[in-house]
Amino acid sequence: MVADKAYDATRLREDLVRQGIRPYIPQRTQRQRLPKQGFTYDKRRRQWICPEGHRSIGQSPHQRGGWLVYFSERACRGCPRAGSCLSRSQTRKVLYWHPGTEANRPRGLKRALRVRKVVERTFGEAKQWHGLGRSRYRGRERTAIQVLLTCLVLNAKKMARRFKDAPGRGKRTRAAEQAAA
User: Fold this and answer.
1) Nearest to 74 by CA among 51, 57, 96
2) Which of 51, 146, 164, 180 is the most buried (most CB within 10 A)?
3) In the listed set 50, 75, 103, which residue is the last one of a domain according to the structure?
4) Where are the beta strands (DSSP E) in the chain?
5) Are residues 75 and 10 in the same domain?
6) Quick one: 38 and 95 in the same domain?
7) Pairing relationship of beta strands 47-49 and 67-70 according to DSSP bridges
8) What range defines the domain where residue 124 resides?
9) Are 133 and 98 within one domain?
């Protein structure tokens, strides 16, 4: 299943895996940004290390399933990067970390997201140019007919584009010439 970042949740990922569905969901957590900011994770000690070498001092569970990771106020107060690392209201660095998302990240995510772009483009065309943004009819059956006819039109347009670009277009085959004679 391919979804966007709005569906990134550990419970959803675990439920999908339990049902035998491979989730292709990009992360919305800070985990992907932490290494770019210079933070590293020490698996042996289960601590985060800031770019200046200070280690996290604790963590607490977060309601969304991840962890809030805390750094020492004393270390952050004397840090030369405090101006760029901390907001004005912060006295110490607090990170949100979600370890489950990295473990559930399947291979082939980039490829699946490229396929999703193609599908989303088609859905966008159907919505913007062919009236699928809002159903014209009431009831599932009539709405289903509208969707099927819209898909028929989209497929016909796709076939017309492919036929137009086909090699040898406009040339008569030998069989066609013999039939015309």
Assistant:
1) 57
2) 146
3) 103
4) 40-42, 47-49, 58-61, 67-70, 94-97
5) yes
6) yes
7) unpaired
8) 109-164
9) no
Using 70 as the pLDDT threshold, list the residues of the chain that sit under it.
Answer: 27-36, 100-107, 166-177, 179-181
Contact, 181 vs 170, CB < 8 A?
A: no
pLDDT of residue 152: 96
CB-side neighbour CA atoms (13 Å) of 122: 14
- pLDDT (0 to 100) of residue 4: 74
Q: Examine the domain organization and report whether 93 and 120 are in the same domain.
A: no
Separation CA 180–CA 137 (nearest Å): 48
DSSP string, 51-74: TTSPBP-EEEE-TTSSEEEE--HH
Q: What is the pLDDT of residue 89?
A: 87
For 12, 28, 37, 158, the CA distances from 87, given in Å and listed in that order, are 32, 21, 15, 51
pLDDT of residue 46: 86
